[in-house]
Model the fold of this input.
Amino acid sequence: MVYFRLHSKMDAEDVTQEVFLQAFRKLAQLREPHHFRTWLLRITVNQTRDFLRKRRLLSWVGIGSREPNEEPLEQHQDHGPDGMEVLLRKEFWELLKRLVGALSRWEREVFLLRYLDHMPIKDIAAVLNKSDSTIKTHLYRALTKVKNDPVFLSICEGA
Amino acid sequence: MTEPRDKHPDLNELLMGIVDEGALPLAARRHLRECSSCRAEKERFEAGLAQIGRLASAYVPKPDRTVSPPAKQSITHFFSVPLWKMALTGALLVLLGVPLFLGLNSRKSPSPPNLTALLREMSEDERFRGEIVSLGQSVLPGLFLDLTEEPDSTFEEGFMEYVVPIPGAEDVSGEGRKGGGVC
Done:
């Protein structure tokens, strides 16, 4: 989930670690244990958003100019996939980035939570602290933008 | 009134059906159930979205790092410190604390009062007060000083009674007042 947003393995691991540490520290504040998953995902979304904001700020002031997709290709070879798979993987993330890049912030967030994190509308609403109808509106708008995107059409053909 | 069966929903309606099928009108829902081409179109779109999710899950690099929770800190953690460490810390605190405490105390304790200096200071204060009083009296003009002195020395008592009548005085004497005051 974090990697879908950051496109950097190292950053995703950092943020994931921070998410679990924060969750561990604030576990006592969780009033309803059956909402643990939603609570954890909300922490994740907030942490990821904060990280992106910091990265953008640092990039803006010129301290850190590393873009998420600038990760060297060799890093993807940690688990020994062949060259073709590495290329496919890289191509997929670039296409996905382009696909969701056309969406607004909330449309992108809802789209990712719905189709990449496989969350139902109700859970997305709880995580983003919005109503179900707002989530449906954002999702509908996202789909209307995605429907004619050549990237999406090529994925549909491959499905 | 029902929609004709051959009216296919447009793509936007299909998208609405993907987001929330319950939000579609009853006729459109029925049409989606019965029309194989519309259903196929909707399923094709849904399959594309599902494919994105599948590929994303498959192409996420596996994490190298494992996240482990920090060691639980409880009250037993304090007692798990070796005894020699606690003793050493205590001894250091005593060594540092005692001189500090003594130093602060010695600084705070007041020196015995010097009686001669105190008496001299009191006499100076008294002289200073006297100077202030005499200065105030000499500054005032003579007329003011006359007015502020005892009235008996300047004005007769009968005149003062005429100017400022004492209430009930005539009742006591049984005589009516002739003057009636200034006004």
